[in-house]
Structure formats: structure tokens, C-alpha cells
Write a structure and sequence with these properties.
The structure is a single chain. With about 290 residues, the protein is an alpha/beta fold. Helices cover about 45% and strands about 15% of the residues. It has an eight-stranded parallel sheet with strand order 6-5-4-3-2-1-8-7. A two-stranded antiparallel ribbon has the order 9-10. Strand 7 (about 200), helix 9 (about 210-220) and strand 8 form a beta-alpha-beta unit. Helix 2 runs parallel beside helix 3, helix 3 (about 80-85) runs parallel beside helix 4 (about 100-120) and helix 9 packs parallel to helix 10 (about 235-240). It is globular. The relative contact order is 0.10.
Length: about 290
Amino acid sequence: MTSAGRPAPLRSLLFCPATEPRRLAKLPNLGADAVAVDLEDSVAESEKDAARAKAKEAVAGYGPVRTYVRVNDLSTGRTQGDIDGVTCAGLAGIVLPKVDDADMIRQADEWLTRAEEREGVAVGKTRVLVLLETGRGIHNAVPILSASPRVETAIFGFVDFMLDVGIDVIDHTPQAEELLYARSSVVIAARVAGTSPPLDGPFIDIGAPEAFEAQCRQARALGFRGKMLIHPSQVALSHTGFAPSAEEADAARRIVAAFAVAEQAGNAAVVVDGRLVDYPVVQRAQRIIEAAR
């Protein structure tokens, strides 16, 4: 938890299907900041009802590991049953996919409250990670993320987003220029709504670690602080990609130290490494130092 009581931002959220017991058993020991047991896209339609009990069993056995369950979206008619089936004391929250408007959040909030009361869980404890993965979801991001105090932050689901808005390429371009507006919109909406920093969506080419780490650094530069992961090999790379480099941390320390000397002399601006430094620059440098720590 952060000092303000809000859950700490996630660098890595590692997903695993509820129907794969061997992978589920390994999931809490793979070093991710949090894990998510999946009932949605990775579970066959014929297995979805049975998967609820498997997900709840996994959550109950993970102990202190920060654990979420991705439920099915509201259009499937399965969301309430999923929430009823997995809510328990060990559940940190749900991942709610394909959220298009604030009413979807309010409906999920109502179902969670009923489930918490039934399970003897403190009302409001179960948080919501919002998957924004449609044009409507991006357009309505601020009211969506402001709809309930349960909302922890957003995840930008760009795979489904590309399908929804008609970006007809197999994968995004290396710099993902076609996603820049939507990604930046998610970051700004999270800031306006006062949630934790958002997570970027999954990188589906698990055989391209250098490209994955580059995308993490690109997402960090846009204001994301973590990533939705689909393979254990991506955990350490995500933590590296969302951390300041040694060079950034060193530069930030020089800025803070030089500004402290200048401020004592009555100056609120100083040149450090050829860069004009004033209060906003110092504040960013302090955040970089904290992130590096």
C-alpha cells in the first residue's frame, strides 16, 4: 500500500488461465507485483462455469500475493456469476474487461457489494482494474474511472482496441504511433480520476524480449507505470523497463543536490548539466529517485 492507503502502482500483472492447474500452481512464485487468474479470453466457453471454482481455490491458496480475477464482460451475461463465484477474503480485485461506460462500473460495484456481504468480506475491499479496450471505453475513460471508489486504475487493452476501431494490422508498429492518442488518453484519464497510474496492455510476441522491454520504456515515457503480462519471462523485463535507468537516476540525484544548494542561497533556478532546473524539474527528479529506490 502507498502512504495514502491506495494500493501501490503495479509494474507487472501476470495473467494465467483458471483452467491450467500446473501454471496456476507456479503463478504466485514468479516475482510479479500481482497476478490475475483469467476466466475470460483464455478459457473455452465450455469450461467457463467450472473455471469459477478453480479460480476461487487458487485465490484462497495464494496467501499474501496480490491476486485479481479477470471476469467475463457484461455482454456475456456471466459477469455476476463470475463475481459471485470468486469473491473471497483473499481477492484483491477483479479485472473488468470491455468497459464502455460508467454504468458498467456501477453495476459491477453493486454485484461486488452483494458478494462481499454474503462472503463476510468488508464492503468496498474488492477493487476493480478497468480494461479499456474499445473506442467507446477510451472516449468515456474519465467518467468510467471516476464511477466508483473501487476503481484502482485502468489497463489499456490495445489488442481488442485495434480490432474495435479498425486498425487492421497483425501487430502494432514498433513505435505504436497508431496507438499514441488512445494510450495518452488513458494516462490522462487516470490522472483526472485520481486513480493509480495505469497499466499498458499485453505484448503478444513472447519471443522478442528486446522489443518487449523497448515497449515498456515507451509506455513509461507516456506515463504508464506497469504492464499486463502473458508470460513469466516478461516479469523481470517489465520491472527493468519501467524502472529509471542508472543514468536517469544519477542525473536526478545531481539535480536535487544542486537545487538544494541553490535554494539555500535564495535561488529557485539553477543550471545542471546544461539544463535549466526549477521546481517542476526538481519534483520530477525526486520521483525518479524514488522509483529507482
